[in-house]
Please model this.
Amino acid sequence: MNNRTLRIFILTGTLAILAIIGIQLYLLHEAFNDQQNKFSHSVQIALLEVIQKMYKQDAENLKNYSPVKQVSNNYFIVDVNDHIDANLLEFYLITELNDLGITEDFEYAIYNCETDQMLYGSYVHMSDSKHARHPTTSLPTYPNLVYYFGVHFPGQINYVLRSLRIWIFLASVTMIILFIFAYAIVTILQQKRLSELQRDFVNNMTHEFKTPITATRLALDSLLTAPEIQAHSKLQTFLLIIQQQNSRLNQQVERILQLAVSDKKQLPLHKESIDLISVLKQTTASFPKDQDRIHLHSDRNTPLKITADTLHLSCMLFNLIDNALKYSTNQVEITAGLEGRLLRLKVKDSGIGMEIRELKKIFNKFYRIPTGAVHNVKGFGLGLYYVHQVCRWHGWRVKVESTPGKGTEFCVEIPASQPAWNSTATITWFLLRRHCKILTNDGGS
Model:
């Protein structure tokens, strides 16, 4: 993902998340106001019912002078202009509020209209009064003066918030999604920066290695052709070892460069029809010291034709065989043959094997199975990654099966480019079929 695409992705995602949050906050605010208005309306209706039942007033008379006044969201005043029986008042308040589904605790107080002094007040726990069906006679009555009473709901906010549980849950989920999105963006940016640093370091390192490797190879070529060196067989042997190791180091550097380029784009492939068995024989010949350990099996003596890039195929096979030889001291079995429409190439060793949890990681770049501070097998962790990349470029599939202590088998599934029978057999079959057809036609005549 390039920088421009990443910036567009981040900007679009951020705007979308902010739009969703803005819409949810707006809807939450509207729902909160609606619930508050609903609560206030329900309380006013309940208070009007209380007055109507206490004083037997007609509903039309109550509408004319509006005795209920809302001072705040949770405080209401009712002007009755009449005496108040606290027993009936508390009973009707509890009854009417319960009937309208308001179960919040409340406190009420009775005031003298002339002095504005509170004469009586009480706090009512609705949870204790749900079953109250008859007024008590223990509370005071005030028949001589004109009074009003006030009702306060201290838990009104909690009541409204409880009615908005679903909205609050959705808003919380949105905030969690926003946090995850922000964390993912930060992680992506960090990984991208680290990947670029790693790629730049690898490119610079490998290019810096190319100069001394080339200079060393030229010097070795000159030394090996010198008459003085050719006269000393032991010295010539040492120089050949140095030349071999220099070539091996050059191959590793070239491989790293190719993989660094392949991270950005697929390498161009020069595909051609080739014989897999022939390439296998040439590749196994690159291990002269291990010829007695490598066994190549094929179910046919005829060529197995595939369409592939010869160079990358050879390097892939070299990596698979080299990997099997490194991790096994026993025989390495190489099998190639047709199974249906697929050509399966298998490289099997009877070495140390791998745990199941490691099988998903071995094709990652620079990954090597942890062995603590001991590194008996040398390498960069690029061989199997290169194998996976070559298979991906060609549209092949690579699978691995392994058992700790018993060995590992790599299987590359390749679509066969043509039937793997020999041309002589094909011609013979065609001639026999034509001859039989001629005989059949003659007999019919």
About this structure: The chain has three domains: 3-162, 165-262, 271-415. Residues 165-262 form one domain.
